[in-house]
Amino acid sequence: MSSTRKLTRLNPKLGKKTIYKLNSFPRTPVNTTKELFSRTELELVECCNFKVETARNIQKRAAKWIVPEFVSVLDMMTENNSPFLATSLKGLDEALSGGIPFSSITELVGPTRSGKTQLCLTLSMLTTLPETMGGLGGGVCYIDTERSFNADRLIVIAENRFPQYFGKDERGQANLDKMTSSIHKMDITSSKELTKRLDELQEFIIENDVKLLIVDSIGSLVRKEYQNPVKKCGWGGPLMERNDILLQQASKLKYLAESFRIPVVVTNQVITRNRSETVLPRECFRPIKKSREEGPEVTAALGNTWAHSVTTRIMMNKFHIRNLSNLKFTILNDLFPPNLQELTIVKSPIAANITIYYTIENEGIVEFVYSENIEKEDKRQQEEEIGPMEETDKSDAVPSQSLDKKKRKSDVAEWFISALWA
Amino acid sequence: MSARLVSSLNLRPSTRTKLQKAGFQTVKDLQETTPIELSKEIGISNNEALNILQQIKKNKVTSISASEALQQERKLCPISTSCEAMDQMLGGRGVPVGKITEFCGAPGMGKTQLGMQLCVNVQIPQNLSGPEGEAIFIDTEGSFIAQRAAEIARATINKLNENSVTECDPPMNFDIVMSKIYVSKVHNCDELIALIKVLDEFLQEHPRVKLLVIDSIAFHFRQQFDDMALRTRLLNGLAQDLNKFAQSYELAVVLFNQMTTKFIISGKYNLKDQAALVPALGESWGHQCTNRIVLYWRNEIRCAQLVKSPSLQETTVHYQINSTGVRDYQADSLNSKRRWEELYDI
Ligand SMILES: Nc1ncnc2c1ncn2[C@@H]1O[C@H](COP(=O)(O)OP(=O)(O)OP(=O)(O)O)[C@@H](O)[C@H]1O
Ligand SMILES: [Mg+2]
């Protein structure tokens, strides 16, 4: 992302003499806008013998050349009509007012097997769908640092989710081909390589009409390369170096997201640290687990500096009702499937900190909705109790007792959620 | 006066032809449209449309009689944060004009939210004792989302509508509010410095701007600086310019800063090193702003602490962020949480 420009291109406005003077700036010549703006007015005056006025004018001229424009929010709103990528998780989309936001970085944080890659694959598939089906009708650039990308899985997700569109017939197969050929995987093995790739990505994005950029995962490389920076080498060098790499990558990702108006999704791992041994300050996010809980604390890897760089952060985790054994909610237990997971928006400029529940199925990530489940459960019980009823008198034949129970159950579910997350 | 011809307005030639082609002949024809309608119909930007419509308005009400002193006072009207406790902490009525105020906070504390809220609140009209100004938002992190700003604006306008009893006219128009927040997204340090260098021109063209937000000052200055002395120099230069703007244009300058982990190495006999979360950019930067507020979580409540101020008492207040924006903390929700915890001994 070298947005710096050669000053010689400003020649007609600055004049040859000025440019010559700047070039002969002692020790470090001033050739580019970047170099010009890392000098203060005073330095220019002293080192090049400019008058104060001249120095100011030079910087102003160059500044006008590179400053980004002001846009009113009104214009921003009319410009981009659907700046979100729907995730197909209804609760999440609603909270984020449509889905994963464009033009910014969204981070998925979670332990292994929490479904980060599954969600990435689902999102990739959705992005390639035509707009009429809620997709973006574009390509995907999938940067894989952990070798977790799995094309077979991608196809399974697609076929199960849209059995019509990706059917066994000719058209279905053609659609499938189109989908797989617009998802581009890149294997990357070092953080240096990642930085370099991000620099070169502009062309790739244009050529392949990329509408979604995924980095799975952002943390694994630097964490391998700078293993345990704190314990080994103290707080100094390596940790700063690691943060510097991360910040660079973050600003490159942001630049791509904004310039192409595409969503950028990155994944990140979690670290657990023992509460009693904590050297680092407490996680600055609202704690995911209740503070009174025992055991080690789970937080996102890569620390606070990186955390500032992501615009939206989503935590994915195992659902932990069973950990809270003293809860008197055993009745609810059999309503929850054993592979239930939860997903919390921990930071977003647009959404409150809400939690939704999901399971990983053949068709990718599927939201788990209580009320539906409770209804299903109730229907089943009802049928067991009195047997299936005639369609016609169904509405008034529902025994009041069952209605009560239904209401009570959904109330309990609601309480339960609000107690945990209010 | 309504029979005044459109061609007599101060317009760009191309716009004038566009208007005439669309059949707008007299000012009266224009009075019936809204900015958005006009921009869509004749294919100009919303701002331009607004400009046209404002010219007409200005022509309508020409004389405002108010004493010089009163105007002066209004000019310096602080900008409310929509959280009364925080306004109190900042000196009574909100973020002061003519000074630099810095908010520091960990990710997700609501800095960007507060920035958007201020951009809306700066536009509260004078008859509702607001500053009635415009806002500049410089976004370095890419977290300004128009939809969220719209949501906050709608909620704020609704609240004002509820409170104003006499008005039959809505006190603030949503479209106008949205068109008076000017956003610039800067992608690196040079662009930020360049922008500040030419900002006075923009401020001259938009004399009603009363608020300048930079979210965040830290992001681009935290990377790729091998030469820390250079960084300090550049930051000092920036602070000087901002101070100048704050005073000569009577702006409230609001900066957001990130937090960084500071390590205190405690010698080899101590087993544990200490670490603390402190505002980023170092200590010399800390001297540059007039007021500094740190935002943090305590027991699941958002807190704001005034840590530096030349004249105000250093206090801590609570606030919250909900779908409507920044608000006072309601003890209610805490109580209900307690009740839950008792009931189900979580
Ligand atoms: N619609 C909403 N309803 C309720 N709360 C919301 C809403 N939108 C945002 N929030 C709250 O604001 C938080 C985000 O705040 P914000 O984006 O201002 O953080 P920030 O301090 O700017 O962080 P960073 O340092 O990373 O930029 C969310 O995590 C959420 O708690
Ligand atoms: Mg922010």
Automatic annotation (TrEMBL), chain A:
Domain RecA family profile: 81-270
SMART domains: AAA
Cross-referenced InterPro entries: AAA+_ATPase, P-loop_NTPase, Rad51_C, RAD51B, RecA_ATP-bd
Entries under PROSITE patterns matching the protein: RECA_2
BP-aspect Gene Ontology terms: double-strand break repair via homologous recombination; meiosis I cell cycle process
Domain of life: Eukaryota
Annotated GO CC locations: Rad51B-Rad51C-Rad51D-XRCC2 complex; replication fork
Pfam annotation, one family: Rad51
GO molecular function, one term: double-stranded DNA binding
Residue segments, region Disordered: 377-411
Name this protein carries in UniProt: RecA family profile 1 domain-containing protein
Species, as recorded: Rhizophagus irregularis (strain DAOM 181602 / DAOM 197198 / MUCL 43194) (Arbuscular mycorrhizal fungus)
Phylogenetic placement of the source organism: Eukaryota, Fungi, Fungi incertae sedis, Mucoromycota, Glomeromycotina
TrEMBL record, chain B:
Annotated ranges, domain RecA family profile: 75-259
Gene Ontology cellular component annotations, sorted alphabetically: Rad51B-Rad51C-Rad51D-XRCC2 complex; Rad51C-XRCC3 complex; replication fork
Keywords: ATP-binding, DNA damage, DNA repair, Nucleotide-binding, Nucleus
Compartments, record wording: Nucleus
Pfam family, one: Rad51
Transport found in the keyword field: no
PROSITE patterns in UniProt: RECA_2
Gene Ontology molecular-function annotations: ATP binding; ATP-dependent DNA damage sensor activity; crossover junction DNA endonuclease activity; four-way junction DNA binding
One biological process term in Gene Ontology: meiotic DNA recombinase assembly
Source organism, top-level taxon: Eukaryota
Descriptive protein name: DNA repair protein RAD51 homolog 3
Species for this entry: Rhizophagus irregularis (strain DAOM 181602 / DAOM 197198 / MUCL 43194)
